[in-house]
Amino acid sequence: MISFLKHYFEKKAENVQNGFTKLLVEFDPQTASEAEIGELDEALTKLTQQMVGAKNAWDKELRQSQEIQKNYDLRLSAAERLQAKSAAAPSPEEKAQVEASLAKLLDELEKMAPEVQREAQEAKESQGYYEELNQAVKTASERLKTARERLSDAQRRMDLAKVRMERAKEQEDQAMVLSGIKKQASSIGTAFEAMSKRADEMETQAEVHRQKAQLLTPPQGGDDPLIAAALKEASGDTAKPQQSLADRLAALKK
pLDDT, tens digit, for every residue of 195-249? Predict the structure, then answer.
C-alpha cells in the first residue's frame, strides 16, 4: 500500500519539487525581489500540501505496521506455549495433536514474517520521505521570512524618507512665502493636504507588507481450539493457574 502511495505522491509532486528545488537553490533572501518571493511562496504552498499528504501516509502505514507486528508477536507467543505443551504432553496422542496445531501456527508465522518486515520497511521509507519534504519546507520558510522582513524594512525606510522629504518641502515653501519669494500662500495648504493624503496611502501600504510578512511565519485461532486457547493465553485473557503455597514461597525467595 505504501509503495503505491509513495510513488503516487512522488509522481504527483515531481514537477513541483524540481521547480521548488531550483528556486530554493537560487533564492537569495538578501537580494530577492517581490516577484521572486511570490514565485517561491507559491511553490512552497504546493510542496506543503505534498508534505501533509506524505505525513498522513506515514501515519497510516505506521499504524498498519504496528498492528501487524502485534498480531505476529501474539502468534509467536502462542507457538512457544504450544511447544512447551507438546514437551509436557502426558501421552503420544496428545503430543501429536498439540504438534499438529503447532505446525499450523508455524505455517502462519512463516507466511507473515516477510509481510511484517515489508510493512516495517515501508513505514520507515514513508517517514524518510515525509522528513525530507518537511526539512525543505522549513528551509524555504526561513528564507522567505528573512526576505519578507528585509523588504518590509526597506518599505518602512522608504516611507519615512518620503515623509521627511515632504515635510522639508513644506518648510521650504513656507520659508519662501515668508521671504516674499513665493506668493499665493493658500496653495501651501492644498499641497500639504495632497502630500498628507499620499503619506497616509503609503503608510497603509507599508502596513499591508508588514502583515503579509507576519502571515508567512510558519509551522498523525480459526477453528482450532488449541490455537485459540494458546492465543488467548498469550494475550493474557486466561486466568493464571492457582499456585501452591510452596510455589508462592519459592517465587518470593527469587
Answer: 777 777 888 877 766 666 555 543 335 677 787 777 777 776 655 666 665 676 5
Chain segment 25-60, per-residue pLDDT in tens: 667 676 667 777 777 788 788 888 888 998 999 999
Return d(Cα 101, Cα 224) in angstroms, integer. 7
Cα 129 to chain centroid, rounded: 10
- Residue where the block lists cell 510513488: 7
Phi, psi (5° rounding) for residue 191?
-65, -40
Residues ≥6 apart with Cβ < 8 Å to 189: none
* CB-count exposure of residue 166 (10 Å: 0-12, 13-18, 19+): middle
Q: Which residues of 198-234 are buried (b: 16+ CB within 10 A; e: fewer)?
A: eeeebeeebeebbeebeebeeeebeeeebbebbbebb
Kindly state the cell numbers that stand for 103: 505446525
What number of residues does the chain have?
Answer: 254
